[in-house]
Design a protein that fits this description.
The chain is of the alpha/beta class and 551 residues long. It is built from 15 helices and 21 strands. It starts with a strand and ends with a helix. Bound molecules: the ligand O=P(O)(O)OC[C@H]1O[C@H](O[C@H]2O[C@H](CO)[C@@H](O)[C@H](O)[C@H]2O)[C@H](O)[C@@H](O)[C@@H]1O. Pfam families: Glyco_transf_20 (PF00982), Trehalose_PPase (PF02358).
């Protein structure tokens, strides 16, 4: 006779060793006990089925432990449906039940019962039988289903869950946690920050003219494009709303790119094709997908992506984005290799906001709630990225590649960084600041800083991330050196085709003399940038002045 063990979570320590037996549905033998770790491991190893019908949160670990403990058993998980749990959550007491079957007699196949967003997920829900914990018949049926499931189905479900449990490690959780903590700090700082002054154009131009090795980092969307609300555009012209370089910029860009003392990088969230289409004709660097892909327009695309980037979540998010796109007229989503963006800027904004709020609920509590992703909310968009995908995180690798490729031997002495970047990407502004972000940003302080070299004891070890050559979307094998995650100062050895190494003679890649740094946020007021420009029209006008002054 199959037997099932049921655990009750209780706070009463006296009942820890209490074990009772009773019968349910005639054929299943149930024992009742409390959740004690040793029991979980023991029964996790010997049981065929775990039934976790938590009515409030708090039992995730038990499900994970059960999956992790399973060896040859390939045990079946039965979980309560998220939606049902949420519905009753607010008035329920803290009751949880776990039932572990401890018998081997399992035969016939079964059909999974998954909720709307669990189907394609990597979460445990996708490998479990989901039940409404309030429906006794359904729960009983699910136990029978689990006990009589075919070995193949069992194996398949177990494999799914096991991969999820073993890849969503404590390390991964910690990285996500720290990343979210960083975001909170950034947002809090932005809230209390004063509104920066407008870009001092004359000063920016005169310093540009005096410098000899300049770097211009330019965003694309809403920085170098025409403003969205240009008169004459209809709201339903989504196809024609594809990002297009501002037509008045062509001449200025050509002039700036042809100056040998100037390196231009377009650093954008857009994909490779969009950047190719818009900037292919200029002699500049293109950094697509927030810098995860890099290309000198004369060369091939390569990837700067960290090797361990976990992209398992992408199908689940796509599923959610498709669902909301279908239900939100004139919204659309972009699927990139490292992120997905759902955009409702052409939709009814109020409705879009409501939908975005709903979508965020799904993303935060649904199948990707444990995935290594950052959910970034824009004013008219929701973006999901792999943790670690930010413009600031990519910029050191990009700089490394530029320094190597140009065989640079003198420091960059002028940086202009302009963009309509999301808060998450504002780390690119702070990257060039002489003070560490955690010290707080202070223009006054930073102006005192000349040489940007950190004391050697604060310099991290010279670990060189690999830049992989990726012709178009495929990843190739060629390796390029890059700067380490060191910020303003980088040890970089220049040599043709060699990887840089810490042992070589080092020099400061950046020497901005404090004042030769112009970070500028476009169309924002709360920002970590030093200065502001109102719109992409102002960017165009400024770049035209810069180009005119230098020719
Ligand atoms: O990376 P870029 O090409 O320079 O573009 C900057 C960001 O543009 C998009 O976000 C902006 O537009 C969204 C509406 O379409 C809005 O919700 C968001 O607040 C804006 O920042 C894009 O979604 C981001 O990925 C880009 O980084």
């Amino acid at each position: 006779m199959p037997s099932v063990l049921e655990y009750h979570m209780v706070s009463d320590l006296q009942s820890i060793h209490e074990v009772r037996r009773f019968e349910i549905r005639q054929c299943i033998n149930i024992r009742v006990s409390v959740a004690v770790n040793a029991f979980i491991v023991d029964f996790g190893q010997t049981s065929n089925v775990a039934l976790v019908t938590s009515l409030r949160d708090g039992m995730n670990l038990v499900s994970y432990e059960f999956v992790a403990c399973q060896d040859s058993k390939k045990g079946v998980l039965i979980l309560s449906e998220d939606s049902v749990v949420k519905l009753y959550d607010f008035y329920l007491s803290n009751t949880c039940r776990v039932i572990l079957s401890t018998d081997d007699q399992i035969q016939a196949p079964c059909t999974p019962n998954l909720d709307a967003f669990a189907g394609a997920a990597q979460s445990l829900g996708a490998g479990a039988i989901l039940v409404n914990p309030w429906n006794i018949t359904e729960v009983a049926d699910s136990i029978l289903q689990a006990l009589t499931m075919s070995p193949e189905d069992r194996e398949k479900r177990h494999r799914h869950n096991f991969v999820h449990v073993t890849t969503h490690t404590a390390q991964e959780w910690a990285e996500t946690f720290v990343s979210e903590l960083d975001d909170t700090v950034i947002e809090a700082k932005l809230r209390t920050k004063q509104v920066p002054p407008p870009l001092p154009e004359e000063d920016a131009i005169s310093r540009y003219l005096q410098s000899t090795n300049r770097l211009l980092i330019l965003g694309f969307n809403a920085t170098l494009t025409e403003p969205v609300d240009t008169p004459g555009r209809r709201a339903d012209q989504i196809k024609e709303m594809e990002l297009k370089l501002h037509p008045e910029l062509k001449e200025a860009l050509t002039a700036l790119c042809s100056d040998r003392k100037t390196t231009i990088v377009v650093l954008s969230g857009s994909d490779q094709k969009t950047l190719d289409d818009n900037f292919g004709e200029y002699d500049m660097w293109l950094a697509a997908e927030h810098g995860m892909f890099l290309r000198l327009t004369k060369g091939e695309w390569m990837t700067t992506m960290p090797e361990h980037l976990n992209m398992e979540w992408i199908d689940s998010v796509k599923h959610v984005f498709e669902y909301f796109t279908e239900r939100t007229p004139r919204s659309h989503f972009e699927l990139c290799e490292t992120s997905l963006v759902w955009n409702y800027k052409y939709a009814d904004v109020e409705f879009g906001r409501l939908q975005a709020r709903d979508m965020l609920q799904h993303l935060w509590t649904g199948p990707i709630s444990n995935a290594s992703v950052d959910v970034v909310q824009g004013s008219r968009s929701v973006e999901v990225r792999a943790v670690g995908v930010t413009k600031g995180a990519a910029i050191d690798r990009i700089l490394g590649e530029i320094v190597h490729s140009k065989s640079m031997t003198t420091p960059i002495d002028y940086v202009l960084c302009v963009g309509h970047f999301l808060g998450k990407d504002e780390d690119v502004y702070t990257f060039f600041e002489p003070e560490l972000p955690s010290d707080g940003l202070a223009v006054a302080r930073s102006k005192q800083n000349d040489g940007l070299k950190l004391p050697s004891d604060r310099r991290p070890s010279m670990k060189l991330p690999v830049i992989r050559s990726a012709p178009k979307s495929s990843q190739g094998k060629a390796q390029r050196p890059s700067l380490n995650p060191e910020k303003r100062t980088a040890n970089h050895s220049c040599g043709s085709g060699r990887r840089a190494s810490a042992e070589k003679i080092s020099w400061n890649v950046l020497d901005l003399k404090g004042d030769n740094y112009f970070s500028c946020a476009v169309g924002r007021t709360r920002t970590n940038a030093r200065y502001l420009l109102g719109s992409s029209d102002d960017v165009v006008s400024f770049l035209m002045k810069l180009a005119n002054a230098s020719t």
